[in-house]
Amino acid sequence: MKIRSATLADVDTLVALDTIAAHDPERRHHIRSWIEAGCCYVVETSGSVGAYGVLAYHFFGNGFVEMIMVAERFRRRGLGMALVKHFTAVCSTPKLFASTNLSNRHMQELLCAAGFCTSGYIDNLDENDPEIVFCFHATQLRS
């Protein structure tokens, strides 16, 4: 398994593996923008790109895991955890945040297993599906 920065050559691959991008042109635009901004990373395994993630720094000046997307055929193989662990290791701020919907149990379990703790909730983003905010103190890796 190898994690590297995404390049524009990866756009079509990331769009194809993203379950939202197939029917959402805005997601396709986000993927290209994330790559152009240099905050998108891919996981290669067995010669294929199986996942991507986005580490940004727009959340009140802190690191923020904006996206983790694992291709359906690569799920439950540790690619999501590899990305999260990579982000916790390279985050340049003392705190790294992430969020997911209350309905997304898999992402909640992944973040908790990676050492994140619940930090709060945001209502009214998605109707009847609150967003849970998680925090990881990146400095604990450097102590």
From TrEMBL:
Coiled-coil segments: none
Superkingdom per UniProt: Bacteria
Domain N-acetyltransferase: 1-139
Leader peptide range in chain numbering: none
Residues that span the membrane, as ranges: 51-71
Protein name, as recorded: GNAT family N-acetyltransferase
GO MF term (any one): acyltransferase activity, transferring groups other than amino-acyl groups
InterPro entries per UniProt: Acyl_CoA_acyltransferase, GNAT_dom
Keywords: Membrane, Transferase, Transmembrane, Transmembrane helix
Record carries keyword Transferase: yes
Organism: Ensifer oleiphilus
